[in-house]
């Protein structure tokens, strides 16, 4: 991978698994793979991002990716129904489930671990290959996904997310003005962030109430897209599936990289690729920049609550948010 791979602000500071955690997750992975009927394997690595993922090697077989998570925001049934529909109904290259029965649950005494198995996806993150050409293709793929979603009739029992407010994950509240964080975010900046979140809440609620909502990926960003040796793009991470308007997906994608000097060229390329398939989904009066600020606010909030040293991330996120204040 290129040494100059771009790392968005909120990926700074993700901690490594401790030795005890590594031992625990190795044991859980072994039990899960045994229950999947996989007898001969080795674990190449176990890494922590938003979930714990283990790379599974098997003699003479394709590698696998075992995802371990607790308390998911979206049920695996909703995620897999959407992913399989996209795989059947489009030519979009995606992550590939291992089998129809690709998820089991393991009780650990303190929590139930959801264990989902996929084929390992080879390639490097789009973040290592940020070119206008790749962003044009990403725009085209996003439009193709939205075109399919407009025709898909989902089963009635699915429960995707709804981005109808800034803090749209269940149980989350904005904490920027909590005294605990006064050393990393000033009272003036915290007040500006809260005002921006309130404005974004109104815009998100308005868009969420529009007719004709469709299923969306919910997290198309440069670290959830792989580039293979032939330059093809593959979409990963369907676990944040939401229902709403295509502008929601576009805002999430275009939030990433806003601080880069080549961002205007990437944004223009994405839009041009999207327009190859369908009209640009940002209507007159839509505040796309405010939606991108809402994304940054949510990530800032998450950083404050989860990072031991949130300062480096806050310094990078605040200008993005205050630009829309």
Automatic annotation (TrEMBL):
Recorded superkingdom: Bacteria
Pfam family name, one: APH
The Aminoglycoside phosphotransferase domain, residue ranges: 50-275
Protein name per Swiss-Prot or TrEMBL: Aminoglycoside phosphotransferase domain-containing protein
